[in-house]
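User: We ran a pulldown and think these components assemble together. Before we commit to crystallization trials, I'd like a predicted model of the whole complex to look at. Sequences follow.
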Amino acid sequence: MDYRKTKEQRLEEDRVDELLELIWMLIEDGEATADNIAGKSEDPLASSLLKDIESLGLISIDHHSGKVTFKEGGKIKAEQIIRRHRIAERLLSEVFEVEERQIEDHACELEHTHVLGQVVVDSICTFLGHPPTCPHGKVIPRGECCKKFSLDVKPLVGALTDLRIGEEAKIVFISSKYHARLDRLSSLGIIPGSVIRLHQKQPTYVIRIEETELALDKDLAKEIFVKKI
Amino acid sequence: MHDHGTEAVKAGEKIIIVGNPNVGKSVIFGLLTGRYADVSNYPGTTVTLTTGSYRMGGVNTLVMDTPGVNTLIPMSEDEAVTRDILINEPVKQIVQVVDAKNLSRGLVISIQLVEMGLPFVLVLNMWDEANSRGINIDVEKLAAAIGTTVIPMVGVERKGLKELREALDTRTFPSIAINYGGVIEAGIRRLEPLLPEVNISKRAISLMLLAGDESLKPWLKGHVGINDINKIESIRSDIQDKYYEPLGYIINQIRLKRCEKVIADVLSKSLAERSPIMVHLGNWAMHPVWGIPVLLAVLFLTYEFVGVFGAQTLVDLLENSLFGSHLNPFMTRVVTLLIPDTFFQDLLVGEYGIITMALTYSIAIILPIVGTFFIAFGILEDSGYLPRLAMMVNKIFKLMGLHGKAALPMVLGLGCDTMATLTARIMETRKERILVTLLLALGVPCSAQLGVILGMLGGISFYVTLLWIFVVALVLFLVGFIASKVVKGESSDFVFDIPPFRVPILSNILFKTLSRIKWYLKEAVPLFILGTLILFTLDKTGVLKVIEAGASPIVVGFLGLPQKATAAFLIGFLRRDYGAAGLYTLAEAGELNPNQILVSLVTITLFVPCVANSMVMIKERGLKTAAAITAFIFPFAFLVGGVLNFLLNGFGIKL
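Assistant: Here's a predicted model for the assembly, 884 residues in total across the polymer chains.
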């Protein structure tokens, strides 16, 4: 946080942040054109702001198709905003259990650099077990902490394999790169939000969900991240 | 095997029973149609369609029992069977069976049925179990929330049957709807115009396509032009690109969340009163330490009941007392009196006679063994022990490129390899299905064969029995291990439902045993007679002598067995159990020493699969794979037998 900046400067920074965030999300959806961005932005002066950040070298606008892409600097900046926003969403939904429709507003306030600094974001990320996605399923850009997987902060959210036998926990996210795995688990009711109880770890993991007992491999259990109740 | 007598009602609209695995669909099917469909306590008992008929408003209507599914986007072949039925068959009424204890998993399917635009009634089965666990469901509220009739039932006690019958008369199209959010809904709207008119709604098919249902592709090719298929593909990848997680997972999540909302309004929990003994037993059976003594106890009791009581006491009673001392001498006398011609005398009561060989083998030796085995097996199936066993052996199967679920078809193979080869459908990948088929065909002895073998080995010592188990298991494991490296393809994850441990219901076991014995008599006995006729012909024409002489280097030289054993291997081509029975009589006549018994039994255990099993292999895995498997097994069986003989002699071991 930089206290030397004036209030006006900070306000200006917030506007840029909001626009970069919007561009990132529209690029994710494959709809990032200048018109689209101006149309969807809540900033009344979005069009001119877009030109400003283009001249700052953060983005480039294809003047033919109107397609907007990030330049290196803009990408890094936007990535950090998105990361802060989505980590904040996770924090609010998992730890504070804020109601879903309020999460968005609060997360928007937390996403700015002068509110949540890098170190704090990484600590929260670690605390949450390095979640790969926000509660809405959108990807959270990885930070330095995720690469190191540092254990300085005791995580609140850990793999199912870290639970002790007999403990109950709520599934926070499932981090698997295999589509078939996610499909199969979800068809058995294993999705974020479900409450499970670890029954045994050997010879395979056995969990109880509702009135069903499910046996599963350790490989799978490792990818299910839970929060103790 | 259950589809005779229903041709008359095959045309027209059908009643289709669907639901999650192991919720009692086959019980409800039995109640409606009066036909017995195999009922057990493990997921995946029904892997093919069973049909029967139900009289509805004076008309016979076809009822179909389908394999259980957790979602209508199939992940294995048995699940695909169910989805295909819903797409292709005209539906009069659907009976969705739900385990009342696990309402949310059932409702996920309800939602998909609603999306398909199909009429259904909802059966909350195992109502008693839910109640004893303190789960109370407000039936009227649930009916209002979904918009259809909801019937609490206890299928095995016929409770709720009257209500179900009444409900079947009215078709209700339920009304619960889901909004999947702007992006997915837009995708559905873009897909719908590209799809053909079929029994189920375009919305449902669009969702399946979005979820990435690979198994729908062949169907799509038959109904949609290549241009539109490409468009469908690009729409799907458009939508998927907007999400990090797979669409199928996202759609499932939205459905489950919707179900949770419904459930929060209708379900309440009170204190559970359960029978602690069954819960404890169930837990012990899969405990990392106690699971092993439980497994040994199960094996020991089965051995005592089948191997000792069935294969020795009962066989002795039937073979020696009934057939040996009374029936055969009596028939011989009658036949000699009535038919003067020795040729026909031999045909009936000679060395290879229909009465003295075929009927003696099949009724006196094998039937009591199969009968006791079916009873023991039925108890295991209905108690819920098999899924726990699958879990215990998961790690061993992992080494063979499979996982614990494969233990189910393997154990079922001890009943009948032919049926078990069908059950290989519960495996999710092609590689796993091929491996299971290979191992079944190679070395899982079916009940009849197992019984004869146990009878012979039990006569020597328990120690030799263990040695036989060890050799066969070792060979199976090695072949599985190597095959998993050779056969290309993927392996799937082990995620497996463990049903509650239950006290088996006597009537179901009796029903099951009787229907299996009936099947044995119908399928095996005619083959036994055929085999005997072939042997008889070969013997009379002198060809048998030629074959025996020709096979002598292998049977006598390599395996170290008497020349007469050739006949046993010959009939082993028809059925391995028949071959084993041939060895049994040789051993009884004192023509085999213990070493020879072990070698010959190992060889016949690994021998070529029976005719029926080969047919199913061709049907399920294709001619090429089936032929390759058989071509491997035939010489391999002799190779293992020969090596074993060589080792026993080499080390000078006398059993």
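Residues 18 and 47 of chain A are 13 Å apart (CA to CA). That may be worth checking against your pulldown data before setting up trials.

User: Thanks, that helps.
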